[in-house]
């Protein structure tokens, strides 16, 4: 069953200078399309990963899914309820307690003046629920000691703080947890601990994850389905093994090839060309065409639609024409 | 036959930070050599002392941190006890530096061309005309398109990747023999990171320059370095050729570190993890600092003075290193 | 909470406990003594002297009725014959000796200072408290809500900043005098003074709190609270407010010194505390009339007290600012 359904999601930011500057310098208004017409579904009890480089709009999508940001157009439905248009207060409240989020920076995501106990039970306490013994139980679930409830966040290491964030996210017994780069601020050995714990909790609690990351290796490990974003557009969606062995979009292939590999000492690769274009003024047609080795005239003129391809979907005019090299 | 003098030698380098709760030792008796044309990768997790080691070499420790023991030799000559003014001549001239954030290394108010030309004039005995020519060649070499036209551009007019290229050009314009790169690609996107790695490798090879590449990313190390030094809690845990460190680690920490990267366990349900976290510097355990987390630890590890790299011909600082014939479990 | 060391505690997963590099928890008093702020206090002679002087003056003001020789504003205890007694010299008519002399009406200067200190400190504290509550509230609202709320609040603040605060206080004082019926004027004078000084001083609280709020509201713990569905009021009060208070504390201390001086200035100008409830400023104004006829002590001792008070509170504020600012350490 589909838990999250994202339909033609678009978000435009106004990045103009203040009106007085515009008036004096005769500048036009400037708009940044951070997310452009993105659609995907997340079935219950699966992990859907969004992967992309800076400016791909992955965090913006995450914020719109949890309702921290309103879409410019399009919808996010969670369990059939759209938080933006829903009128029924009870339905909104139910859906809100079904969604939680884990953030990137474990140092900024816990209020430094609160005790761990208050931090963890806040999602429940804010709704007037019973929280007796809850913080202790949750702390033990995430591998910390129940004795830690009276401490303050600064008494913990980065990995431990991220565990506290997970405990807070679990407090309201949510169905969906949006994880925005949950381990990119952590060291490798601690990252492994946190990722393993998240996998375990997913099975125990029947959770659904929307996992946002720039790290392909982490995504490959965690996801059931991977969506690749480029300049706010979903360019490819496929299960991890398909994506890594037979990428269908040339950007995916480039990304996989560019990622440093452990077994690759002495590898002499031709690094990818060019950089991500300015998202305020993205290229016409397919946004990737200036860097694409396969681009033809059609790519510069017409934006490719996301169409079913193999077990996934891809937005490329030349999908299937040429076999791209992937990683083993 | 004479043995060539290594470009950089650390001899038991030790850094102390006196605090009111006692003295912390973020770098503890670290020794290694880097030869001409060699890239030494320094890996470790945050707090391992890798950046502090780099800063100690270039004499840029923030007080009260200071070198409290050991020596730093640049081409056989001691530089750790030089007065500030002499050290400043060496930085930039004989040691080039690249940091994580390119903006901190560039003056936002000067054009890229001016910064390069000034640096060349300060360190090399050339006239302004020649310096400008060299600056253009430098930008060209690091892959800035139409370098001559970009000389008049300011740092903010470049993209992140291009800016890091400019920083590399700036670090190399006085033709140093040693390059210290501290997390040079951490702030960059994957595709740009690959470009910068390829650039660093090519420049070291072409110029016969030695490089010390500090990073937390095993993948970057595996692709770039010739040899790898693994640091843990301020100490050198293991050092050796990259293929051995990645392929056949001998120190249990190196082994755990490599195995816990998601890339190493592709296709497995669970990642291998090292329990616990690195101890804080004010609470180091006796003996081997890794012993509380180590699956192979025995009594000797917890009580005996810690083992060191180089003793009894060992490249790993471990009493019970993983033997090559053991199957890395 | 158990005070046992970690190793003896019954943790569910012993290996995980290693992440906490924590020692036995000291007692509460010990913790306060060891805190960075207390340490910095103990190592700053200036702060200690300033704190001692402030404390002594505050205690003297609180216990004025006990430490003063007479109640200078009880007409029945006054003897006009004691007027203009020089410090330490027995009065020619009554033979009484006043160590700090007396004024024209025979009031003991030492006692008038103690009672004046009461008024000055009361007005200062209350005015700062008023400015603090107003400024912090408006700053929080402006920073968190943004939009037109912010525009209105911060424009008003900007406009007010363009006038000297003493002018603003004079204006408010004047308006209040106009509104309040004449028979209540002396009774209300103190409260009008507090209102005037408070209203002229809220801007800096608002500006600092708004700045800190802008930083805090983008932190992820605030987003987490929004996600839960917490109301804006709850987020501002429970999440943001505790995190923006340390700069407020610094400003409040420095403001206290400024408010005391502002009160003295207004009283000196004759628009502040009435002669029936004289503050230090009123005493200085009175003393000024006799300065050129040789009775210097009537002005000198209240002025010294004001100087000591304002200076020590200000130094305390400076120390607090440095001690709470990690960048200056």
TrEMBL record, chain A:
Location(s) in or outside the cell: Cell inner membrane
Example of a GO cellular component annotation carried by this entry: plasma membrane
Matches recorded under SMART domains: AAA
GO MF, one annotated term: ATP binding
Chain ranges of the ABC transporter domain: 10-256
SUPFAM superfamilies named in the record: P-loop containing nucleoside triphosphate hydrolases
Transit peptide is among the record's keywords: no
TM helices/strands, residue ranges: none
Family: Belongs to the ABC transporter superfamily.
Name used for this protein in its record: Putative D,D-dipeptide transport ATP-binding protein DdpF
Organism per entry: Jannaschia rubra
Biological classification of the source: Bacteria, Pseudomonadati, Pseudomonadota, Alphaproteobacteria, Rhodobacterales
UniProtKB/TrEMBL annotation, chain B:
Domain of life: Bacteria
GO terms of biological process kind: peptide transport; transmembrane transport
Alphabetical list of Pfam families matching this protein: ABC_tran, oligo_HPY
Keywords assigned by UniProt, alphabetized: ATP-binding, Cell membrane, Membrane, Nucleotide-binding, Transport
Endpoints of the signal sequence: none
Domain ABC transporter: residue ranges: 8-258
Location(s) in or outside the cell: Cell inner membrane
Cellular component per GO, a single term: plasma membrane
GO MF annotations in UniProt: ATP binding; ATP hydrolysis activity
Topology relative to the membrane: Peripheral membrane protein
Family: Belongs to the ABC transporter superfamily.
Protein name: Stage 0 sporulation protein KD
Organism field: Jannaschia rubra
GN (gene name): oppD_4
Automatic annotation (TrEMBL), chain C:
Membrane association type: Multi-pass membrane protein
Chief localisation class: membrane
Protein name: Glutathione transport system permease protein GsiD
Gene3D superfamilies listed in its UniProt record: MetI-like
Keyword 4Fe-4S tagged: no
Subcellular location: Cell membrane
PROSITE patterns named among the record's database cross-references: ABC_TM1 (PS50928)
Domain ABC transmembrane type-1: 117-317
Keyword Transmembrane: yes
Species name: Jannaschia rubra
